Each structure stands twice: as structure tokens, then as C-alpha cells.
Amino acid sequence: MKKRIFTLIITAALTVSSTTAFAAEIPRETTPLNATETQIQITENLISDILDEVQAGKFGYTLAAGYANTRIRKAVMANQTDGNGYGILSPIAQNAIRIMRDMQLRPDSYAQAEEELKVLLADLITEVQNGKNYMEAVKEAFRYGRAFDKVRQDAVYTAERNNTYCLN
Description:
Layout: H1 2-18, H2 37-56, H3 61-77, H4 86-105, H5 107-129, H6 134-162
Helix pairs in contact: 2-3, 2-4, 3-4, 5-6
């Protein structure tokens, strides 16, 4: 009987300790061009729970940005960022929070953009299926993605300048 209880306790403890947390990742297309993968990972480790709250709609941009800035500043001051400074880690966090909040507020717009991007990338997807190097395809896809972001930004800027807004 004692063996059985002991086995149940150990099994329960292992089950609880082995569950993984699904933290939000920073979308790579939102990062500054000069950000390295290491810097993105450090920022992700610092603010992933904040990103979860933004995705769930519990935090607005201002509150999430304030929490992220405080957490990054404290980590930099405590020398926990492998020598990376506030000047690069903060923009990575701000961009991710801004885009995630925007995705949460305007999901239809992002679904439409995703469909448009799939059309742009259809040839690239076919090339990968036919044996093209995956990493080369990823680099090309990011070039398409950045070009697409630039087109959308130009459209928003033009709409703001002309006071003509297109609401989806």
C-alpha cells in the first residue's frame, strides 16, 4: 500500500514538473534589421509572459510596453543580458508588442494580408517542395515579407497624409 501511494505521488510530481509552458514567441518579421537571433531570444525570455497577456487581450499596448521596458531595464542593470543593451532589446520588445496588439485588435486585416502573402510566396513554396534549400527559401520569404510590410506602411502613410482611411 505504501509503495502504491509513493508511486502515485512520484508520478504526479513528475507529471506536474514535466508540463511545458507555451509562451508567445516574438514574430521575427517585427524585429529591427540589426537585431541578432541571440538578442531576440534574450528579449523573448524576458517578456514572453507579457506577450501572452497581450495576445489574450488582457494588456493594452501602453501597459505591456511599460512592463516590458521595466523588465528589460532591470535585466540590463543586473547584467543578465549577455552584454546586450537596452537600446536594442527594448525596440525588439516594443515592435513585438505593437504587432501582437494590432493582430489582436484587427484579425481580419492580418488574415487578408496573410492570403495576399501566400499568393506572393506560391512560387517559393513550390520551389521548396521541389527540393530548393529551405534556408535560402526562408531568406527570400523574409525579403518578400519586408517588402510587403513596406508596401502596407506606404499605403498607411499615404492614407494618413490624404486623410483617407480604409477601415477593414
